[in-house]
Amino acid sequence: MAFIKNTIVACLALVSIAHCAVLHGAPAPVAFAAPAAPVVPVNTEIDPHPQYAFAYNVQDALTGDSKSQQEVRDGDVVKGSYSVVDADGSLRTVFYTADPVNGFNAVVQRGPVPVVAPRPVLPVAPAPVPARFIQG
């Protein structure tokens, strides 16, 4: 992101220089901005066999938001899936794998949304009214 920002700033500077040169009849100088080198701490340790697992699930009846994802990594092999309810009401599930030999592969399945029984709405008792607000 920093590279893009620096490139845009450099391009805007060149356009400004060229515009001034055209107005004053001088040849426009050519300049190039060197991209900023990424900063890597000196004592950075790299895990030779990274491992992780995560998952989340959102089912919001109020907004209709329904999605989930799970992923597992073991070294250079990543496997996972994510599901989302599309605008047409169908459930799209993508199963994916990635490894150094086969690259990234994904299989997409579409189907009906599983019906989930609605949760019962519990009655809410009215809040007690403080004595100082009771008129009598």
Enumerate the spans where pLDDT stays under 50 for 5 or more consecutive residues. Answer: 3-23
SSE pattern: HEEEEE
Q: What is the tally of helical segments?
A: 1
Oligomerization state of this entry? single chain
Biggest beta sheet summary: 5 strands, antiparallel
- Proportion in β-strands: 35-45%
Envelope shape: extended
Averaged pLDDT, please? Answer: 75
Strand order of the largest sheet: 1-2-3-4-5
Secondary-structure class? alpha+beta
How would you portray this structure in words?
The chain is α+β, with helices and mostly antiparallel strands and 136 residues long. It contains 1 helix and 5 strands. It has one helix at residues 2-24, and strands at 51-60, 65-74, 77-85, 90-99, 103-112. It has a 5-stranded antiparallel β-sheet with strand order 1-2-3-4-5, with no helix packed on it. The radius of gyration is 29 Å and the shape is extended. The N and C termini lie far apart (67 Å). Residues 3-23 have low confidence and may be disordered.
Task: Provide a compact summary of the structure.
By secondary structure, the chain is of the alpha+beta class.
Considering the chains and any ligands shown, give keywords for the structure.
136 residues; alpha+beta; extended
What's the structural blueprint in terms of helices and strands?
Elements: H1 2-24, E1 51-60, E2 65-74, E3 77-85, E4 90-99, E5 103-112
Antiparallel strand pairs: 1-2, 2-3, 3-4, 4-5
